[in-house]
Amino acid sequence: MVTRLLILLLLPLVVHGQWATQANRRRFTCGYPANVPGLVALWKAESVPAVDAQSIDVWVDCLYRNEAAASTTARPAYKTAIFGNKPVARFDGTSDTMLLQTTITLRTNTGWSVIACWAYNGGAGTRYLIARPAVGAGGIRIDVSAAQRFIFDGVLFPSSNLPGATGTNPLMGTFAYTGSTCQFREATSSLGNNQGALGLNIDIAQFGSQNSAAFFLGDLAEIMFYNRALTDAEMDGMYLNYLKPKYSIP
Protein backbone atom coordinates (compact mmCIF):
# COMPACT_ATOMS: atom_id res chain seq x y z
CA MET A 1 0.00 0.00 0.00
CA VAL A 2 2.83 2.40 0.89
CA THR A 3 4.67 1.55 -2.32
CA ARG A 4 1.57 2.16 -4.44
CA LEU A 5 0.96 5.51 -2.72
CA LEU A 6 4.58 6.56 -3.33
CA ILE A 7 4.30 5.74 -7.04
CA LEU A 8 1.11 7.78 -7.35
CA LEU A 9 2.77 10.74 -5.66
CA LEU A 10 5.83 10.63 -7.90
CA LEU A 11 4.09 10.08 -11.24
CA PRO A 12 3.24 13.78 -11.80
CA LEU A 13 6.93 14.62 -11.46
CA VAL A 14 7.97 12.67 -14.55
CA VAL A 15 8.27 14.97 -17.56
CA HIS A 16 9.25 13.59 -20.97
CA GLY A 17 11.07 10.68 -19.37
CA GLN A 18 13.04 12.87 -16.93
CA TRP A 19 12.52 13.42 -13.22
CA ALA A 20 11.49 16.95 -12.35
CA THR A 21 10.81 18.55 -8.99
CA GLN A 22 8.04 21.02 -8.27
CA ALA A 23 10.75 23.59 -7.55
CA ASN A 24 12.18 23.11 -11.05
CA ARG A 25 8.73 23.52 -12.56
CA ARG A 26 8.30 26.87 -10.78
CA ARG A 27 11.78 28.05 -11.67
CA PHE A 28 11.40 27.36 -15.37
CA THR A 29 7.93 28.72 -15.98
CA CYS A 30 7.46 30.91 -19.04
CA GLY A 31 7.54 34.15 -17.07
CA TYR A 32 7.15 37.45 -18.92
CA PRO A 33 6.53 35.97 -22.42
CA ALA A 34 3.40 34.23 -21.12
CA ASN A 35 1.93 37.64 -20.24
CA VAL A 36 1.79 38.41 -23.96
CA PRO A 37 -1.23 36.65 -25.53
CA GLY A 38 -0.68 34.04 -28.21
CA LEU A 39 2.40 32.20 -26.93
CA VAL A 40 2.53 28.68 -28.40
CA ALA A 41 6.11 27.58 -27.64
CA LEU A 42 9.13 28.83 -25.68
CA TRP A 43 12.57 27.32 -25.29
CA LYS A 44 15.03 28.66 -22.69
CA ALA A 45 18.56 27.33 -22.37
CA GLU A 46 18.35 27.87 -18.61
CA SER A 47 15.69 25.15 -18.42
CA VAL A 48 18.10 22.44 -19.61
CA PRO A 49 19.24 20.21 -16.69
CA ALA A 50 22.92 20.17 -17.66
CA VAL A 51 26.39 21.29 -16.57
CA ASP A 52 28.88 23.37 -18.54
CA ALA A 53 29.98 21.81 -21.86
CA GLN A 54 27.53 18.90 -21.54
CA SER A 55 25.74 17.88 -24.73
CA ILE A 56 22.03 18.67 -24.92
CA ASP A 57 20.01 15.59 -25.82
CA VAL A 58 16.51 16.96 -25.27
CA TRP A 59 15.34 20.55 -24.88
CA VAL A 60 11.81 20.78 -23.48
CA ASP A 61 9.49 23.67 -24.30
CA CYS A 62 8.60 25.65 -21.16
CA LEU A 63 4.91 25.10 -21.91
CA TYR A 64 5.57 21.32 -21.80
CA ARG A 65 3.87 20.93 -25.18
CA ASN A 66 6.88 20.25 -27.38
CA GLU A 67 10.54 19.30 -27.28
CA ALA A 68 13.61 19.50 -29.48
CA ALA A 69 15.77 16.39 -29.66
CA ALA A 70 19.28 15.94 -31.02
CA SER A 71 20.91 12.90 -32.56
CA THR A 72 23.47 10.93 -30.59
CA THR A 73 26.37 12.43 -32.54
CA ALA A 74 25.32 15.99 -33.41
CA ARG A 75 24.22 17.74 -30.24
CA PRO A 76 24.64 21.39 -29.25
CA ALA A 77 26.50 22.05 -26.02
CA TYR A 78 25.15 23.66 -22.87
CA LYS A 79 27.39 26.61 -21.94
CA THR A 80 27.00 28.52 -18.68
CA ALA A 81 27.18 32.26 -18.03
CA ILE A 82 27.55 33.36 -21.67
CA PHE A 83 24.95 36.14 -21.97
CA GLY A 84 25.34 37.94 -18.66
CA ASN A 85 25.03 35.14 -16.13
CA LYS A 86 22.68 33.07 -18.30
CA PRO A 87 23.45 29.88 -20.24
CA VAL A 88 23.04 29.16 -23.96
CA ALA A 89 22.76 26.25 -26.33
CA ARG A 90 25.93 26.41 -28.46
CA PHE A 91 25.71 25.15 -32.04
CA ASP A 92 29.03 24.23 -33.67
CA GLY A 93 28.27 25.20 -37.27
CA THR A 94 29.27 21.74 -38.48
CA SER A 95 26.66 19.17 -37.52
CA ASP A 96 24.56 20.29 -34.52
CA THR A 97 20.82 20.04 -35.17
CA MET A 98 17.73 19.66 -33.00
CA LEU A 99 14.51 18.29 -34.48
CA LEU A 100 11.15 19.31 -33.07
CA GLN A 101 8.89 16.57 -31.83
CA THR A 102 5.91 18.53 -33.13
CA THR A 103 6.17 20.87 -36.10
CA ILE A 104 5.24 24.49 -35.37
CA THR A 105 3.04 25.93 -38.10
CA LEU A 106 3.22 29.68 -38.70
CA ARG A 107 -0.15 30.42 -40.28
CA THR A 108 -0.44 33.19 -42.81
CA ASN A 109 -4.14 33.79 -42.19
CA THR A 110 -3.70 34.63 -38.49
CA GLY A 111 -0.21 36.08 -38.52
CA TRP A 112 2.67 35.06 -36.26
CA SER A 113 5.80 36.24 -34.47
CA VAL A 114 9.15 34.62 -33.77
CA ILE A 115 11.45 36.19 -31.17
CA ALA A 116 14.94 34.92 -30.40
CA CYS A 117 17.92 35.93 -28.31
CA TRP A 118 21.10 34.67 -29.92
CA ALA A 119 24.58 35.52 -31.18
CA TYR A 120 26.26 34.29 -34.34
CA ASN A 121 29.94 33.39 -34.13
CA GLY A 122 31.02 33.62 -37.74
CA GLY A 123 31.38 31.11 -40.53
CA ALA A 124 30.96 31.74 -44.24
CA GLY A 125 27.83 31.21 -46.28
CA THR A 126 24.24 30.70 -45.22
CA ARG A 127 23.43 29.58 -41.67
CA TYR A 128 19.94 28.56 -40.51
CA LEU A 129 18.73 29.36 -37.01
CA ILE A 130 15.37 27.63 -37.57
CA ALA A 131 14.10 25.92 -40.68
CA ARG A 132 11.44 23.94 -42.48
CA PRO A 133 11.99 20.20 -42.84
CA ALA A 134 12.48 19.92 -46.61
CA VAL A 135 15.44 20.62 -48.87
CA GLY A 136 15.33 24.08 -50.38
CA ALA A 137 12.61 25.31 -48.06
CA GLY A 138 12.88 28.45 -45.97
CA GLY A 139 13.20 29.57 -42.38
CA ILE A 140 15.24 32.17 -40.53
CA ARG A 141 18.75 32.26 -41.88
CA ILE A 142 21.80 34.48 -41.65
CA ASP A 143 23.58 35.13 -44.91
CA VAL A 144 27.05 35.57 -43.43
CA SER A 145 28.67 36.22 -46.79
CA ALA A 146 26.41 39.22 -47.39
CA ALA A 147 27.02 41.51 -44.41
CA GLN A 148 25.12 39.26 -41.98
CA ARG A 149 21.79 40.00 -43.61
CA PHE A 150 18.69 38.28 -42.29
CA ILE A 151 16.40 36.39 -44.59
CA PHE A 152 13.07 34.87 -43.62
CA ASP A 153 11.66 32.40 -46.12
CA GLY A 154 13.10 34.36 -49.02
CA VAL A 155 12.22 37.80 -47.61
CA LEU A 156 15.45 39.81 -47.50
CA PHE A 157 16.18 42.55 -44.95
CA PRO A 158 19.29 44.22 -46.42
CA SER A 159 19.69 46.84 -43.71
CA SER A 160 20.08 44.36 -40.85
CA ASN A 161 23.80 44.43 -40.09
CA LEU A 162 23.33 43.10 -36.55
CA PRO A 163 25.62 45.43 -34.60
CA GLY A 164 27.36 43.67 -31.73
CA ALA A 165 25.59 40.33 -32.14
CA THR A 166 28.76 38.28 -31.97
CA GLY A 167 30.55 36.29 -29.29
CA THR A 168 29.11 37.12 -25.89
CA ASN A 169 27.05 40.08 -27.17
CA PRO A 170 23.56 38.75 -27.94
CA LEU A 171 20.90 40.14 -30.20
CA MET A 172 17.13 40.17 -29.82
CA GLY A 173 15.64 39.63 -33.25
CA THR A 174 11.92 39.54 -34.05
CA PHE A 175 10.08 38.50 -37.18
CA ALA A 176 6.40 39.45 -37.18
CA TYR A 177 3.94 38.74 -39.98
CA THR A 178 0.53 40.40 -40.09
CA GLY A 179 -0.89 38.58 -43.10
CA SER A 180 0.27 41.25 -45.51
CA THR A 181 3.54 42.61 -44.10
CA CYS A 182 6.61 40.87 -42.73
CA GLN A 183 8.74 42.99 -40.38
CA PHE A 184 12.15 42.35 -38.87
CA ARG A 185 13.17 44.19 -35.70
CA GLU A 186 16.47 44.29 -33.87
CA ALA A 187 15.81 45.29 -30.25
CA THR A 188 13.30 48.18 -30.59
CA SER A 189 14.33 49.25 -34.09
CA SER A 190 12.58 48.12 -37.26
CA LEU A 191 15.20 47.10 -39.80
CA GLY A 192 12.90 46.45 -42.68
CA ASN A 193 9.43 45.64 -43.92
CA ASN A 194 8.35 43.56 -46.87
CA GLN A 195 4.90 44.21 -48.24
CA GLY A 196 2.85 41.36 -49.63
CA ALA A 197 1.61 38.02 -48.43
CA LEU A 198 4.10 35.19 -47.96
CA GLY A 199 1.52 32.79 -49.34
CA LEU A 200 1.84 29.37 -47.73
CA ASN A 201 1.93 28.42 -44.08
CA ILE A 202 5.45 27.80 -42.81
CA ASP A 203 6.25 24.65 -40.87
CA ILE A 204 9.20 24.99 -38.48
CA ALA A 205 10.73 21.58 -37.79
CA GLN A 206 14.32 22.10 -36.64
CA PHE A 207 16.83 24.33 -34.90
CA GLY A 208 20.39 24.84 -36.11
CA SER A 209 20.35 23.71 -39.74
CA GLN A 210 18.37 23.28 -42.93
CA ASN A 211 17.90 19.58 -43.63
CA SER A 212 21.37 18.67 -42.32
CA ALA A 213 23.08 21.55 -44.13
CA ALA A 214 23.76 25.28 -43.65
CA PHE A 215 24.51 24.73 -39.95
CA PHE A 216 24.14 27.61 -37.52
CA LEU A 217 27.37 28.66 -35.79
CA GLY A 218 26.53 30.47 -32.59
CA ASP A 219 24.60 30.57 -29.34
CA LEU A 220 20.86 30.43 -28.72
CA ALA A 221 19.59 31.47 -25.29
CA GLU A 222 15.87 31.70 -25.89
CA ILE A 223 13.36 31.42 -28.71
CA MET A 224 9.60 31.87 -28.64
CA PHE A 225 6.72 31.53 -31.09
CA TYR A 226 3.39 33.39 -31.11
CA ASN A 227 0.29 32.66 -33.18
CA ARG A 228 -0.24 36.31 -34.10
CA ALA A 229 1.74 39.39 -35.08
CA LEU A 230 2.78 41.21 -31.92
CA THR A 231 2.34 44.97 -31.85
CA ASP A 232 5.33 47.29 -31.83
CA ALA A 233 4.59 48.08 -28.18
CA GLU A 234 4.56 44.38 -27.28
CA MET A 235 7.85 43.76 -29.07
CA ASP A 236 9.42 46.80 -27.40
CA GLY A 237 8.20 45.55 -24.02
CA MET A 238 9.68 42.11 -24.63
CA TYR A 239 13.05 43.72 -25.21
CA LEU A 240 13.05 46.48 -22.58
CA ASN A 241 11.28 44.62 -19.76
CA TYR A 242 12.54 41.10 -20.28
CA LEU A 243 15.30 40.12 -22.73
CA LYS A 244 17.60 43.16 -22.43
CA PRO A 245 17.96 43.06 -18.61
CA LYS A 246 17.89 39.26 -18.43
CA TYR A 247 20.66 38.63 -20.96
CA SER A 248 22.62 41.90 -20.59
CA ILE A 249 22.01 42.83 -24.23
CA PRO A 250 24.12 45.91 -25.09
What do you see in this structure?
The protein is mainly β. It has a single domain (30-247), classed as Sandwich (Jelly Rolls). The protein is 12% helix and 41% strand. The chain has helices at 2-10, 22-27, 232-247, and strands at 14-15, 18-19, 39-44, 58-60, 67-70, 77-83, 86-92, 98-106, 112-120, 126-131, 139-143, 149-152, 155-157, 171-177, 181-186, 189-195, 202-207, 217-226. The strands form 3 sheets. Strands 3, 6, 7, 9, 14, 15, 16 and 18 form an 8-stranded antiparallel sheet that branches. A hairpin with a 6-residue loop joins strand 4 (58-60) and strand 5. The longest helix is centred in the last third of the chain and has 16 residues, at 232-247. The protein is globular and about 40 Å long. It starts with a helix and ends with a helix. Mean pLDDT is 77; it is low at 1-27 and 158-165.
